[in-house]
Amino acid sequence: MYPNKKTSRSSLTALVMLITLLSTQSASAQQCEDLIKMDGLFTKARTECPFGYYAWRFQQDSQVCMEKIGKGASKELFIKGQQTFDSKSKAMGKEALCQKLLRDFPMTVKR
Questions:
Q1: In this model, does residue 24 exceed pLDDT 50?
Q2: Which of 39, 78, 79, 110 lies in disulfide reach of 53, CB 3.0 to 4.6 Å?
Q3: Contacts of 29 (CB under 8 A, 6+ apart)
Q4: Please, which pLDDT band fits residue 94 given cuts at 50, 70 and 90?
Q5: Beta carbons within 10 angstroms of residue 55's beta carbon
Q6: What is the pLDDT of residue 12?
Q7: Is 53 helix (H, G, I), strand (E, B) or coil?
Q8: Distance (Å, rounded) from C-alpha 22 to C-alpha 96?
Q9: Where are the chain's structural domains?
Q10: Spatial contact of 98 and 49, defined as CB atoms under 8 Å apart
Q11: Is 94 exposed, middle or buried (0-12, 13-18, 19+ CB in 10 A)?
């Protein structure tokens, strides 16, 4: 009643695949949290900086993440992003922060 090598290998392979899947899902959850915070930051920046363009695709991706994470948690993350804009604006100046966002995220925001 000892497992043969073939059974042990297939069990090990299944375990490795499960661990990989779980770590991918948690990374995806972290990426969603970061994306929602960035959407909060850019949404705030759009009202404070003279941006004429904010990538619609970025907002769509954020909305998909918000649906995955849930309304309450998403709202908190979005607010954290807006607060990040406020704190960085105070620390470095609003115009400097707007310029940095334009330089660092040219596909997301434009004048």
A1: no
A2: 110
A3: 68, 69
A4: very high
A5: 14
A6: 55
A7: strand
A8: 40
A9: 30-110
A10: yes
A11: middle
The DSSP result for 60-111, as a single string, is HHHHHHHHHH-HHHHHHHHHHHHHHHHHHHHHH-HHHHHHHHHHH-TTTEE-
Q: Is 49 helix (H, G, I), strand (E, B) or coil?
A: coil
C-alpha triplet 51, 37, 23: angle, nearest 5°: 135
Helix (H) or strand (E) holding 104: helix 94-104
At residue 98, what is the residue type? C
> 41-62 pLDDT, tens per residue?
999 999 999 988 888 888 888 9
**Residue 18 structure tokens:** 């499960």
What's the mean pLDDT in 7-28?
Answer: 48
- 26-47 burial, b at 16+ Cβ within 10 Å, e below that, comes to eeeeeebbebbbbbbbbbbbbe
